[in-house]
């Protein structure tokens, strides 16, 4: 009987060990960290004129892969389908400027946030005297836009529900809708809008820079992968205290050299 119980205990431990072999272990064994990303979010992930994916989050992921001792593989994925793609093993992790929301957290797990941002507005210059905050847009006479599947869309439909809404598959199309006076305002994260107002605004947009939401951005993993979350969280603590995070952040948020690489 004792031998039988010991055998059962050993089998249970073995099965538990297998259950806890998560994303990080798989990436190390494979030699590659596969990350799903929609490279359209300046300055987090974007495609330069040479067709390379660059950005703040990309550099963080390169540092993460280096710490694992593996190569980084970026898997371009449309944002509105990125969670289903993770759940069907198209890649190991989401690294695409994703806001940690309670709705998303019901479907996937998140590591600790690597940055906190908030939704802001780009409005038509002609409306600068009328529109001072998102509340002023909550009227059927206004047409607002954002990227489909993002928290910009969620916020538009929740906080500015009375306005007309039309979303786009990517940020640039949505911004151009406002530039071309087909929409009155574009709703998106502050780091993107602070760049887009000059890069795509053509002098026709005004940036209302005060964030009106709290949005922690984090890496998304499959449910139950707590060993990998533990590893990523410890890695984030390390780079925040050894200068790595500050160096990468300064490159993308305090300098503008990278704009020369864009089309």
Automatic annotation (TrEMBL):
<feature type="signal peptide">
    <location>
        <begin position="1"/>
        <end position="21"/>
    </location>
</feature>
<keyword id="KW-0732">Signal</keyword>
<dbReference type="GO" id="GO:0015276">
    <property type="term" value="F:ligand-gated monoatomic ion channel activity"/>
</dbReference>
<dbReference type="GO" id="GO:0030313">
    <property type="term" value="C:cell envelope"/>
</dbReference>
<dbReference type="InterPro" id="IPR001638">
    <property type="entry name" value="Solute-binding_3/MltF_N"/>
</dbReference>
<feature type="domain" description="Ionotropic glutamate receptor C-terminal">
    <location>
        <begin position="32"/>
        <end position="255"/>
    </location>
</feature>
<comment type="similarity">
    <text>Belongs to the bacterial solute-binding protein 3 family.</text>
</comment>
<dbReference type="Pfam" id="PF00497">
    <property type="entry name" value="SBP_bac_3"/>
</dbReference>
<dbReference type="GO" id="GO:0016020">
    <property type="term" value="C:membrane"/>
</dbReference>
<protein>
    <submittedName>
        <fullName>Putative amino acid ABC transporter substrate-binding protein</fullName>
    </submittedName>
</protein>
<feature type="domain" description="Solute-binding protein family 3/N-terminal">
    <location>
        <begin position="32"/>
        <end position="256"/>
    </location>
</feature>
<dbReference type="InterPro" id="IPR018313">
    <property type="entry name" value="SBP_3_CS"/>
</dbReference>
<dbReference type="InterPro" id="IPR001320">
    <property type="entry name" value="Iontro_rcpt_C"/>
</dbReference>
